Amino acid sequence: MIVYLVKRLAAAAAILLVVCALTFAIFYLAPDDPAQKACGKACTPERIEEIRGQLGLDRPVPEQFARYLEGIVAGRSYGGVQCPFPCLGFSFQTNVPVQELLVSRLPVSASIAVGAAALWLLTGVSAGVLAALTKGSWWDRAAMAAALGGISVPIYLTALVLQYVLVVVLGVLPYPRAVGLLEDPVVWLQSMLMPWVALAALYAGMYARLSRTEVIGALGQNFVRTARAKGLPEATVVRRHALRPALTPIVTVFGMDLGALLGGALITESVFGLPGVGKLAADAINSSDQPVIIGVTLFAAGFIVVANVVVDLLYAVLDPRIRLGAA
After folding, report:
1. For residue 153, how many other CB atoms are within 10 A of its CB?
2. What CA dihedral angle connects 31, 37, 42 and 45, to 10 degrees?
3. Class of residue 78 by CB neighbours under 10 A (exposed 0-12, middle 13-18, buried 19+)
4. Cβ pair 298, 88 in contact under 8 A
5. Alpha-carbon dihedral of residues 107, 109, 112, 113, nearest 10 degrees?
């Protein structure tokens, strides 16, 4: 198990290094002036020259890349302002290290992602498993039709409809606003409900269809027929012999989806006006704050890579053959 974990961590580190190299190339080696991109749209020539010196653009490219990596793993300074580990960049428009902006926005994104994930996992997987067990029934057809509808509707339309119906017409919920869970649990829950439902409506449909397909496939395997032939109760056959192999692709997709959402749900946060990591990225795009855009990219990539490592470890728990084969 330790060898398996070490191999996965080494692969994750290699992937993150590649992501760092790509972001460095996009920011530093593109034809446009990196200092101009870092400074923003309205910037004086004097300020651009100052930023060019702080970024070390007069040095050789390998040295620039080395300083870039050093900042991520050890921190660096920009014009006397210390950017501590992990330094994901420095916003010259706000004079704040990017990771400070990300940390301040992460609680909102985490609240949206975790709550929505729990909702779509519960509803989507439950609906898909029940549809597989009642294949061909009215519930199967209705659940898959609802799942297809949820997948087909754009999330921004779902979000706008929810706000219009629940806030404007019915008045049962207030407009969402950023409130901490410990600060005011009731307002926090009210503010998170619509983003959760909007995201869950999209993802639950995908998980329902995936769960149905995987459970139907597992129920047709020889080991399931053997378990039934031995006289095991149907509930035991489904729970212990069909669901376990069917969980593997669901865990894969769930890890990537949750990791991506922790890196920011750009559309959802923008429509509901919630200041999460996704809204930070959208604002940075509008203001051409390139360091923030690059920092959000690294931040999101880190979450996705970590989520995949966790998924690999869950694989080893769900199916020991994977662990033995990788050792």
Report:
1. 15
2. -70
3. buried
4. yes
5. -110
Q: What's the rounded Cα separation, in Å, for the pair 85 and 204? A: 37
Phi, psi dihedral angles at 289 (to 5 degrees): -90, 85
pLDDT of residue 35: 84
pLDDT at 210 over 80: yes
What pLDDT shows up at residue 251? 85
Alpha-carbon distances, residue 109 vs 41, 99, 173, 311 (angstroms): 28, 14, 20, 21
Kindly report, residue by residue over 258-307, the tens digit of the pLDDT: 888 888 788 899 999 999 999 999 998 888 888 899 999 999 898 888 88
Nearest-10 crossing angle of helices 290-318, 243-262: 160
What pairs with residue 132 in β-bridges? none
* Residue 83: strand, helix, or coil: strand
Q: Rounded to whole angstroms, how far apart are CA atoms 115 and 176?
A: 15
Lowest-pLDDT choice from 107-121, 277-291, 304-318: 304-318
Peptide bond into 62 cis (omega under 30): no
**Which stretches of 29-60 are DSSP H helices?**
34-39, 45-55
Per-residue confidence (pLDDT) for residue 327, from 0 to 100: 47
Closest C-alpha among 70, 53, 52 to residue 62: 70
Q: How far is CA 173 from the centre of its chain?
A: 26
pTM: 0.86
Identify the helix (H) or strand (E) that includes residue 114: helix 98-133
Go through the domains of the chain in sequence order and give each one's CATH number. 2-98 (no CATH), 99-326 (1.10.3720.10)
State both tokens at 146. 């609802």
